[in-house]
Amino acid sequence: MRTGHLVAKDICWRPAKNQPFLLHPVSFEVYPGRVLGVVGPNGAGKSTLLRMIYHYQKPTTGQIMVDGQDLWGMSAKAAACKVAAVLQEQPGAFGLTVRDIVALGRTPHRSALSSSGAHDAEIVTQAIARMQLEHLSTRNFDTLSGGERQRVMVARALAQQPQVLVMDEPTNHLDIRHQLEILSLIRSLGLTIVVSLHDLNMASDVCDAILLLKDGHCHGFGSADEVLSEKLVSDTFLVTAQRQKLSVSQNQHLTFHLPT
Predict the structure, then answer these.
(1) Which of 25, 88, 93, 128 makes the best surface tag, with the fewest CB within 10 Å?
(2) Residue limits of the ABC transporter domain (predicted)?
């Protein structure tokens, strides 16, 4: 049976008791192996939502369940065995090689006094191979291009062997070729994925479901056709959105311009 059934029940967050909510109650469900895209304008609450899923910010109220287990009812180490994250901010490597970085993904699975063994090494090798990084495994992480670094961070997440993978703007600052590589990767991983994206057409192509946020409120949850409608996108982003059919593929594509 596939694992990675993610359920959020009325989760919300505010920095302190006397401060306003940055995310108001949101509920959604992602079935194993499916991709949920989180979209919305800047300041909509996307990063706040993702932080709660990868066990960085505890929900003020509500519950996040992975395969029926309360994510915030377990230790950070146990949560890291279930949920991995690939974030926009990449860590300083301090002279670490690609293999060293990927091996860090095994940390949650080791006890405090144990060192990595043959089993961990095999998993790291598999993650490196899956991301086609063998030729870079001994390279210093700091010498890599943006696209290569992103692939290393995904490999590190895969080495965690999570049930759920969170990706925060994985195509940000990448050129077109590397964007396409990351999108192809998302489709191929077979994990339950929650990914925030700025590009709505990209989200429509890659994601099985869309969660649309604005000002910390949920403005829609469902299929891309349902949520990324001309009216809802126009109202949420304060633009005029229109759907056009691409002549070759007949796929629909959103275009935007400022309202007159």
Answers:
(1) 88
(2) 6-240
Residue 20: burial class (beta carbons within 10 Å; 0-12, 13-18, 19+): exposed
**Residue labelled with tokens 């990324």:** 228
Domain 1-82+162-225 has CATH 3.90.180.10: no
CB 171 within 8 A of CB 179: yes
What confidence tier does 93 reach under pLDDT thresholds 50, 70, 90?
Answer: low
27's CB contacts (< 8 A; 6+ apart) are 8, 9, 10, 11, 62, 218
For the residues of 160-210, what is the DSSP string, one character each?
A: T--SEEEEESTTTT--HHHHHHHHHHHHHS-SEEEEE-S-HHHHHHH-SEE
Q: What pLDDT is recorded for position 1?
A: 60
Give the C-alpha separation, 82 to 194, whole Å: 13
Alpha-carbon distance 96 to 175, whole Å? 25
Please indicate whether residue 187 or residue 108 has the higher confidence score (pLDDT): 108
Q: Measuring CA to CA, which residue among 211, 209, 257 is closest to residue 234?
A: 257
Cα angle at 33 between 127 and 228, to 5 degrees? 120
Question: CA 96 to CA 245: how far, in whole Å?
Answer: 47
Residue 208, both tokens: 């099985």
Domain boundaries in the chain?
1-82+162-225, 92-161
